[in-house]
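Structure ticket #2291
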Amino acid sequence: GSFLPPPGTMITSVVGAAIGLGGFIGFAKKGSVPSLVAGGLSGAALIYFDYMATHGNVLGNDLAAATSLLLVVGMGRRAARSGKFMPAGMVASLAAVSGVLNLLQSVNKRQ
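Resolution: structure written out below.
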């Protein structure tokens, strides 16, 4: 038995949707166009890569893991600089979950 969630649970899509929603909230509250664009693009990318992965394409897991890693590094640095968990620390945390799950699923699919 595997401890990985079964394909189709779409955890990465949920993370992508949360990141996209966060970008929209950043725009709505602060007028931050970079939040809207970065949140929207990275969220949409994660949702698309999850779609690929749940339809048998291991490249989707690889791309989701890579995207997640970029978010962990970028937003983790931002959270560390600001000393605040929200919103950057939350994005980094969600991306870390997505990244680890996709990396594990990628390795598992290749065995």
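Closing remark: The chain is about 80% helix and 0% strand.
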